[in-house]
Amino acid sequence: MSLMVIAERRPWQRPLVLLLALLVVGGSGWATYEYGYRRAGIDCKAALAENRELTATVGQQQDRIAELREQRALLERSRQIESQAHTQMGGTISTLQDEVAELKAELAFYRGIVSPRDASRGLRVGSFTLAPAGVEHGFRYKLVLTQVMKNDTVASGDATFSVEGLRSGKHETLQLVDLAPDRQGEFRFKFKYFQNFEGDIMLPADFIPARAVVKVSPQGKKHSAFEETFEWPAEET
């Protein structure tokens, strides 16, 4: 015996279910879209605000960098000025020290004329110096003859110097005329207190100087001829 199921047909029910399903899905999608749109708007505003803040910060940092660069330039310029001033001051001090040393030497020289330690000698060699002349084997000489001030007489006569040394292992003496051909070989002097002589000499390349001998030959009977020996400065040979 078979059973027969009798079902009531409702043709409108299926479309209704589909419509409800579509409404549910559509509403959910719209809600999701609306939420996302609002959320995106909030995030966008936050991003814009953050961007403006970062832009302001960057501007401030750039201004600070420009300020620091300007300060660095000012400090560098100040350092350069200070360095230049220090260099100039050092040069001025060095010049003044040289002038003081020169004045002291002159003072000692004049004191030697006014009140010499050895007043009995009368005419004498005040000083004799040799220094490199800036060319190879060339030297600058300076000879100063003096006479004590208590002697009222005028000293006159001739003076010269020679250089002794070694040449090819043998002793040799070179006269002033050999060292300075432009001179006549001697100095003519005539003075009451002092007289200077200076010039240049040139040594032979194979000559090793050891000493210089200054010879003074005064005229008359009040002064006697004499000579003095000066060792060649070791650092200038």
Mean pLDDT: 80
- Tell me the strand percentage band: 25-35%
Which parts are unreliable, with pLDDT below 50 for 5 consecutive residues or more?
Answer: none
Order of helices and strands: HEEEEHEEEE
Q: CATH topology of the largest domain, which one?
A: Immunoglobulin-like
Query: How many distinct domains?
Result: 2
Key attributes of the depicted protein:
single chain, 237 residues, alpha+beta, Immunoglobulin-like, 2 domains, five-stranded antiparallel sheet, three-stranded antiparallel sheet, 8 strands, 30% strand, rod-shaped
How is this structure best described in words?
The chain is of the alpha+beta class and about 240 residues long. It folds into 2 domains: about 100 residues; about 120 residues, Sandwich (Immunoglobulin-like). It has 2 helices and 8 strands. The strands form 2 sheets. Strands 3, 4, 5, 7 and 8 form a 5-stranded antiparallel β-sheet that branches. The chain has a 3-stranded antiparallel β-sheet with strand order 1-2-6, covered by helices on one side. The N and C termini lie far apart (about 150 Å).
